[in-house]
Amino acid sequence: MDKRVAIIAIIVKNKESVGSINSYLHEYGDYIIGRMGVPYKEKKVNIISIALDAPQDIINTLAGKIGELDGISAKTVYASV
Fold first, then answer.
1. In angstroms, what CA-CA distances link 66 with 2, 28, 30, 44, 55?
2. pTM of the complete model
3. For the segment 4-15, what is each residue's pLDDT rounded down to a tens digit?
4. Domains recognised in the chain with CATH numbers
5. What average pLDDT does this structure show over 18-46?
6. Can you tell me the distance from the alpha carbon of 81 to that of 67, in angstroms, rounded to the nearest whole number?
7. Quick check: 22 and 33 in contact, CB under 8 A?
């Protein structure tokens, strides 16, 4: 199966969902190239970006699981490589 390079952008409004996010990221850790988290205290949100090199279905599954969490928004961007 062909792998794709992608970034999942995550906005965290509900800090209680962070444990679930970290659990999912640990579960799919073999596909993660890197991650960056930025707290934005003024707006009371956290911004997380996850860089992946994974099959399409793995990326979709991870983004879907994260996006279903309460108070979480997630969008995926794919590289054309």
1. 23, 12, 17, 19, 17
2. 0.91
3. 999 999 999 999
4. 3-78 (3.30.70.1150)
5. 96
6. 25
7. no
* pLDDT in the model for residue 80: 80
- Identify the CA nearest to 12 among candidates 56, 54, 65, 70: 70
What is the rounded distance in angstroms from the CA atom of residue 73 to the CA atom of residue 13?
8
Token pair 């794919």 is found at 78
Whether residue 76 is predicted with pLDDT greater than 90 in this model: the reply is: yes
Cβ-based neighbour number of residue 74 at 10 Å: 20
**d(Cα 43, Cα 22) in Å, to the nearest integer?**
22
DSSP category for residue 13: S
The pair of structure tokens assigned to 64 is 């879907």
Give the C-alpha separation, 61 to 42, whole Å.
31
